[in-house]
Structures are given as structure tokens and as C-alpha cells.
Specification:
- 12% of the residues lie in helices and 45% in strands.
- The chain has one domain: Single-stranded right-handed beta-helix, Pectin lyase-like (Pectate Lyase C-like), CATH 2.160.20.10.
- Helix 2 runs parallel beside helix 3 and helix 3 packs antiparallel against helix 4.
- It has seven helices and 33 strands.
- Helix 1 links the parallel strand 1 and strand 2.
- By secondary structure, it is mainly beta.
- The strands form two sheets. The chain has a 31-stranded parallel β-sheet that branches. A two-stranded antiparallel ribbon has the order 7-8.
């Protein structure tokens, strides 16, 4: 058991010269149970790959700075927003590994602004997103616009991510995919802006614990996913046995299940979390071509302050993104075809059942922040079943809407809502 500093391999602590090869060399030299140390300093890097049995220690004052050159992120076989495809590696990659830890109080900075402008332009209206949307291709632009994730954990097990800071990611911050026995503890995530800068995405994983994390981002703070479309439904790699406990969610879209549900999501416990100025508290989102299931979900003991939608369930979410055009795909990339191949007919309607929401308090600091107590839209053809709301107290502008539910149970639910529910507030697309 020894410690190997990346300085010994020639890494540049000033950030003026790229240090990817030096970091990878230090990892190559490490033996089982060794620690690779990122000392105090700024280290510019592209993608590097950890291996089984080692620890990466980000010491206090250490900063890994993501390169803004796409060539520094090799294309790998991965999953992106529910689609298995070739895409750039993350900055830190744990792929086909066992027994790996990333620890310490240092930071990983993705220098995201460069990548965000690639997607939506300097004005947040143009870029690739504006171009694709104008051509009716909003459903594919997120996949064509390649942006690195800060950390990728893929097909791995027995992984610990602890205490460090992830900020300004180009795309998602922490992506856990096809992995087992993963703990994310005390991690701080801070993204000032940027499209699809999710905090923690738990994607077709089992036995995951997320505890004491503080997450601020510009999309879902913490999200559980299980693949998108026909291929994911056939693979049936379920996200299950997941606990999200004791976290603080600030800017962002809350704790979300979906919209990628095709492989199924089950046995999830979300408890003792705090939300401050978050767009949503607890959310489920899906579409009519996802399929899969969401079942045996317990959400309890949440404290929400100035949250726009404390409880939001939309099973036909963001149609421009959710549905692809199947015509004229012969000369298009394979991932376009995968996106267009949804789960058809009634099988495409995600079955949501056995959902318990209890001991929730949602308040406003003043009367100014908008909030809607409930916004629940299930499918008329396949209603949400066994939805229980117990011991809930919400101070909101409007009560909201509840539809597409079979067997809704209210017990000790108190809502203050002076305004009439207004249809103009029906949209929430992030």
C-alpha cells in the first residue's frame, strides 16, 4: 500500500500544460490497494481511466481542470441519456472496475461554459440546439452535441465517491451506469448554469447509496434512470434498491425518476432530504413510448422551501424531446434509429404503482415565489395505481391538477392555496 503523486510522473501543477498522460502513468504504476494522489495545484486534463483496486485522492487545494479540446476525450462505448452509443469519455472514468474509490476534498472543474455554448450558443437560443430545433430535430440534438461528463462509473462494482467537489460539468456531473454497490457520500456538486448539467444520475444501477450530498445544478439534482426506447426495454436492466438520504438540493429540478424508464425502476427510498429554491421536489417523468415500470417507491420526511412544484408527475413529458421521426433514417447515425424506436402501443405506457409520499412540508419564505402544490398527470389508459399521500402540509399559490390516478389515497393532507389553478403553469420541461 503506497501513495503515488502525479507530480512524480510529471504532472504540471500550474495548469498551463496538459497532464493527462502523467496522471495515466501514475495510475498504471499503482498496484492493488495503492493510492494515486492529486496534490494541491491546478492540473489540466482530458479523459483518464482508473483501474480496479486503487484509490484516487484529491487532496485539499487540488483541482482537476477539464480540457476544452474534444480530441482529449476518446470515443467509447457508453450510454447517453438512455441510449447505448459511442460518445466521448468523461474526465474521470471508472469502467469495468472493482473496488475503486475517489476521495478527498479537492475539486473537479469541467470548464463547462465552453461546452454549454456548443449546445445553445452564447445567447442560449442558438448553437446546435437552435439549429436542430428549427429543423424539427430537438429529439436528437442532445446526442449529437458531444459534451464530456465529469465522472463516469460504468459496468463497475464496489465503488466509493466521497467528499470531493464536482463543478461546471459540460454535461452530467456524476453518471453511474450499469453498476452495483456504489456509494456517493458527502459529495458537493455546483453548476452555475448549462443545459443538461445533472448532478447525480443513477442509470440502470443496483444497490446505490447517495448520502449527505449537496447538489446545485441546472437540471435534475439527482435522477434515477433505466434506459430509453425499445433496445433498453429488451435489455431490461432495472434500476433498483437505491437510497437517497440526508441530501441538500438547491438550484435544480429536484429528485427525479425518469424520463428514461424503459428498463424499469423499483425499490427506491428517498428520505430526510432538504430542498431550497429548487424547481421541483419529487418528480416522475416519462413518455408514451418509454414503457417499463416505476414501483415500490417511498418518499418521506422532506423539507421544501420555495419549491415551485413540490410533487410533479408527468407521464407525457416534453414531446419535442421524447418522440423521434422514424422516416428518412437510412443514412443517419445508428443512435438516431435507436431514439426513434420507442416501445409501441400500450406497452409504451410506463406502469407507475405502489408510490408512497409522506411527511412532507413545503413552505414559502414570502408570498412572491410561485408554487403549485400538486401537478400529477398519469395516462388515462393506464392510470397510476396505489398512490398514497400522507401527512403532507403545503403552502402554495395554487392547488394544481391531479388526473390519471386509480386508487389515490389522501390522509392528513393540508394545502393553503389562495389562487385559482392556471393552465399557463402546466409546463415544466427540464
Amino acid at each position: 500500500m503506497k501513495s503515488i503523486s502525479i507530480l512524480a510522473a510529471g504532472a504540471d501543477p500550474t495548469g498551463k500544460r496538459i497532464s493527462t498522460s502523467a496522471i495515466q502513468q501514475a495510475i498504471a504504476e499503482a498496484q492493488h490497494n495503492d493510492t494515486v494522489v492529486i496534490p494541491a495545484g491546478r492540473f489540466l486534463t482530458g479523459a483518464f481511466f482508473l483501474k480496479s483496486g486503487i484509490t484516487l485522492h484529491l487532496e485539499a487545494g487540488a483541482e482537476l481542470i477539464g480540457s476544452q479540446n474534444l480530441d482529449d476525450y476518446p470515443l467509447i462505448d457508453t450510454r447517453v441519456a438512455g441510449i447505448d452509443m459511442r460518445w466521448p469519455a468523461g474526465i474521470i472514468n471508472i469502467i469495468n472496475c472493482n473496488d475503486v474509490s475517489i476521495i478527498g476534498t479537492g475539486a473537479l472543474d469541467g470548464q463547462g461554459k465552453f461546452w454549454w455554448q456548443r449546445f445553445w450558443g452564447e445567447d442560449e437560443q442558438s448553437g446546435m440546439a437552435g439549429d436542430y430545433s428549427a429543423r424539427g430535430l430537438r429529439w436528437v440534438v442532445d446526442y449529437d452535441c458531444q459534451r464530456p461528463r465529469n465522472i463516469l462509473v460504468y459496468e463497475s462494482q464496489n465503488i466509493m465517491l466521497q467528499d470531493f467537489t464536482s463543478r461546471e460539468s459540460g454535461f452530467w456531473n456524476l453518471h453511474l451506469c450499469y453498476s452495483h454497490n456504489v456509494t456517493v457520500e458527502g459529495v458537493k456538486i455546483s453548476n452555475s448554469a448549462g443545459p443538461s448539467t445533472d448532478g447525480i444520475d443513477i442509470d440502470s444501477c443496483e444497490q446505490v447509496q447517495v448520502e449527505r450530498c449537496v447538489v446545485s445544478c441546472n437540471d435534475d439534482n439527482i435522477c434515477i434512470k433505466a434506459g430509453r426506447g425499445l433496445e433498453a426495454a429488451q435489455k431490461a436492466r432495472t434500476a433498483r434498491n437505491i437510497v437517497i438520504h440526508g441530501c441538500t438540493l438547491n438550484k435544480g429540478s429536484g429528485i427525479t425518476l425518469g424520463s428514461e424508464t424503459s428498463g424499469g425502476i423499483e425499490n427506491v427510498l428517498i428520505e430526510h432530504n432538504r430542498f431550497n429554491g429548487t424547481g421541483v421536489g419529487f418528480r416522475i417523468k416519462s413518455a408514451r413510448n418509454r414503457g417499463g415500470f416505476i414501483r415500490d417507491i417511498t418518499v418521506r420526511d422532506l423539507q421544501l422551501l420555495d419549491v415551485r412544484f413540490p410533487v410533479l408527475i408527468q407521464l407525457n413529458w416534453f414531446p419535442q424531446y421524447s418522440y423521434g421521426d422514424k422516416s428518412n433514417l437510412a443514412d443517419k447515425p445508428e443512435h438516431w434509429r435507436k431514439l426513434a424506436e420507442g416501445v409501441e402501443g400500450n406497452a409504451g405506457l410506463t406502469h407507475v404503482s405502489r408510490l408512497t409520499i409522506e411527511n412532507i412540508t413545503a413552505r414559502r419564505s414570502t408570498e412572491k415565489p410561485f408554487s403549485r402544490a400538486f401537478f400529477i398527470e398519469g395516462y388515462p389508459e393506464r392510470p397510476i395505481s396505489e398512490l398514497s399521500l400522507t401527512s403532507i402540509e403545503i403552502d402554495a399559490c395554487e392547488f394544481g391538477k391531479i388526473s390519471g390516478v386509480d386508487g389515490l389515497m389522501f390522509n392528513d393532507v393540508k394545502v393553503n392555496a389562495a389562487a385559482i389553478t392556471d393552465d399557463k403553469n402546466d409546463s415544466y420541461e427540464r
